[in-house]
Amino acid sequence: MEVFAEYLAHIDNPQHRDRTEEVLAWITRKFTNLKPKIAWNQPMFTDHDTYIIGFSVAKHHLAVAPEIAGINHFSEEIVQAGYDHTKQLVRIQWDSPVDFSLLEKMIKFNILDKADCSTFWRK
């Protein structure tokens, strides 16, 4: 988690900082094979140098970015969880609970789907 310490320290709102830290710590514990890193000024996780999932903090939500394939694959579950989304990201409102089971599914999907991927992003 020390890789995220500076990023977290710059989140002014304590609620937003705590929520972001909770999510990043959960992924770090649950997916010990993933490499945590900061890229494009955002926390993310990679597997064999390919992107798995990333996050960013906005005024009203924590943005989760599992790439378009992850959004498309889980679109119905994202809506059922009470989140809205675009083609590129899922918005978890700060006052909404984190659906960790959905997050886990998205991460596992990307790990499996990108097992043979040799590029950072999907082509």
Describe the 3D structure.
By secondary structure, this protein is of the alpha+beta class. The protein has a single domain (2-113), classed as Alpha-Beta Complex (Aspartate Aminotransferase, domain 1), CATH 3.90.1150.200. Helix content is 41%, strand content 24%. The chain contains four helices and six strands. The chain has helices at residues 5-9, 14-30, 67-80, 100-113, and strands at residues 35-39, 42-47, 50-57, 61-65, 84-85, 90-93. A six-stranded antiparallel sheet has the order 1-2-3-4-6-5. Helix 3 (67-80) packs antiparallel against helix 4. It is globular. The termini are far apart.
Write the layout of secondary structure elements.
Elements: H1 5-9, H2 14-30, E1 35-39, E2 42-47, E3 50-57, E4 61-65, H3 67-80, E5 84-85, E6 90-93, H4 100-113
Antiparallel strand pairs: 1-2, 2-3, 3-4, 4-6, 5-6
Given as residue ranges, the uncertain stretches (5+ residues, pLDDT < 50) are none
Structural class: alpha+beta
Strands side by side in the biggest sheet = 1-2-3-4-6-5
Q: How many strands, which pairing sense, and closed or not: the largest β-sheet? A: 6 strands, antiparallel
Termini separation (Å)?
30 Å
Per DSSP E runs of 2 or more residues, the count of β-strands stands at 6
Q: Kindly estimate the percentage of residues that lie in beta strands according to DSSP.
A: 15-25%
At CATH level 2, the architecture is Alpha-Beta Complex
